[in-house]
Amino acid sequence: MAKVLMKGNEALGEAAVRAGCRFFFGYPITPQSELPHYLAQRLPEVGGLFLQAESEVAAINMVYGAAGAGARVMTSSSSVGISLKMEGISYIAGAELPCVIVNVVRGGPGLGGIQPAQSDYFQAVKGGGHGDYHLLVLAPASVQEMVDLMAKAFDLADKYRNPVMVLADGILGQMMEPVEFPAEILQELPAKPWATDGARGRGPNLINSLYLEPEKLEEHNHRLFEKYRQMQEQETMAENYHTDDAEVVVAAYGSTARIAKAAVDMARKEGIKAGLFRPVTLYPFPTEEINQACAKAKQVLAVEMSMGQMIEDVKLSLNCRLPVSFYGRVGGMVPSTRAVYNEISALAQKGGEQA
Amino acid sequence: MITIYERPQSLTANTMHYCPGCTHGIIHRLVAEVIDELDLREDTVGVCPVGCSVLAYNYFNLDMQQAAHGRAPAVATGIKRVHPAKVVFAYQGDGDLASIGAAEIVHAAARGEKISVIFVNNAIYGMTGGQMAPTTLIGQETTTSPNGRDAAVQGYPIRVAEMLATLEGSAYISRVSVHNNVNVIKAKAAIKKAFQTQLEGKGFSLVEILSTCPTNWGLTPLEAAKWLENNMIPYYPLGEFKAAKEVGS
Amino acid sequence: MLEEVVLAGFGGQGVMSMGQLLAYAGMLEDKHVAWIPSYGPEMRGGTANCSVTISTEPISSPIITEPGTAIVLNKPSLDKFAPLVKPGGILLINSSLIDPGYFRPGIKIFEIPANDLALEMGNTRVANMVLLGAFIELTSAVSIDSVIESLKKVLPEYRHNLIPLNRAALEKGQQIAQNQ
Predict the structure, then answer these.
(1) How close B21 comes to chain A (CA, Å)?
(2) Is ipTM over 0.90?
(3) A71 touches chain B (CB under 8 A)
(4) What is the set of domains in chain C, with CATH numbers?
(5) Domain A4-183+209-234: CATH class, spelled out
């Protein structure tokens, strides 16, 4: 199929349709609107359903019902709305239901702003709602990757019976890049014998997250964490850019990683051995990969559109082996390539000294 | 030997955890009998709430989903939209439906969602310890209105059936009671009509069932039945508030 | 080859569509392209703007903070973006709406009376195309043919009658830029 020029938010929608998603439940919020607008038009064309719920709270519970009924289903929102959905997301994780949640992150806390941010990292990777659980979190950095990861998100959700979050931001959502979609619309979905679709010729199925006996609930938590261990083993993804000989490694994800990449280019032109490590899975965090990427590193720089959230996973992964510095902009302010370059340059001069 | 009474297919053999004199057991049985009579056991998905009936999935021999507090109508919406040919019902108490879940029930009704809601109104929060519900009567003593519900402080009890009947999307809305045999029989007929309304694709259906809570009311089961009749029915009149024509005829 | 261009004006001047058309044309030429509408604090203050990157190499960052070219269609856009143009870069000014005489050393400045020229051609709405034509002449980022090809794909069939006018506007811009 030929390439088409498409906005990130719309590309997410088309990718979901091609991944066999037929149900979307959501509530309006800026800056992710192009996605629901696209699906409101597109889903009925393929026999699917777009339903605008009365609230984010209702929307995520419709997702719960539909996922429990065996459908490929998704919702999308932005920061403020994701917080409202967190109760339902905890239930979905507890009941082990597959679904995809898109968060086009905006600045916070509170009502915050509507400009791009990465300040929901903690909420995304640590679980976000109550209880011991994790979402599988994917962070695309281009419109093509939004398409590729959207399909992967549904497959991973089904594979692990776990909610998957696609973490984007206003820049990725609004920007246009050429994309190629898989030619065929996926029709056959994995069988879901656990789904509640009427107990025809079998015993009843139950979708539930309630375990009143502590022994059972502990067992359930252990089972969930066994899944997360498997994800850590099998599903981590990351991109390395000029890290082989890099003495300064920049760690960044999403649109910030694009800026960092340009800063690395700038540094290389100046003869600085800089590289970029970009986690694609934020949970599970690519721990092994970052250690490999930092094999020659003397300094590590985390760049985020937050006050410093991913940096904690970077530090934990490197186990205090290397000095890790931070550069971030917040509130919808976007780091400039030059500012990141300046940080790299300063670290390069420091060499192996502690930050 | 002729069997004249047995457990409906749609109920499991599990012993119910409800308190003595509580009418949840009766209502469960009525729902199960209706599902059996309409031959829907293998075509029904139920949604249980948070509240005393949170464990209803242990008693209904059906595909079930357990919902977050107040969200049963949203969960039921998700299921029904995926499987429009199946019958989907939500089983909710008064705190779940009329307080924390007020938005979900109103909008499910407004959308004309083709689900049936069994709404158990006993004018109190049972499971959490007898607190005031949105349906607690004026003057009624609860653990959070120890001197009786005072309209000046806590406002007024909500008449859910009347409120939902005003919405275009609702097709069948009625209020029944299960405090004596005659009313139990009428309640079953209403539940059946609600399911038939759904089967015929008419729209949203809800049966509000006045129910007793002897434990938290501090009464014996018999006193509780009397209290319901003397106090609840005058404020919550029984009857059909909305019915689509030709349903179940 | 790497072109990083910021296009700015007020809403309704066709700034966004001009940018998209440019990106589309680059894509048709198998180049790497990216288009981003205004983001961050730049969303405020009377301008609509977008950034377009066209490159023969994969694009590291589509977010442009030091554009190689700025095309400004109104005064607030000039104030905002002229100082950001990188040394040696190009500033294209719509002199129909911006007083002439802006100067900054180290960049190439072109004044194109785009609205007046468009009006002469019978439709002020192609002022953006005049500027785009000038940009293409100065940078060779894409060809006029690719822009026309993109127009055919972006415009609905019933609007294809506007294509000759658009081509004329593009060529007019080219011609003016040649002569400056």
Answers:
(1) 24
(2) yes
(3) yes
(4) 2-179 (3.40.920.10)
(5) alpha beta
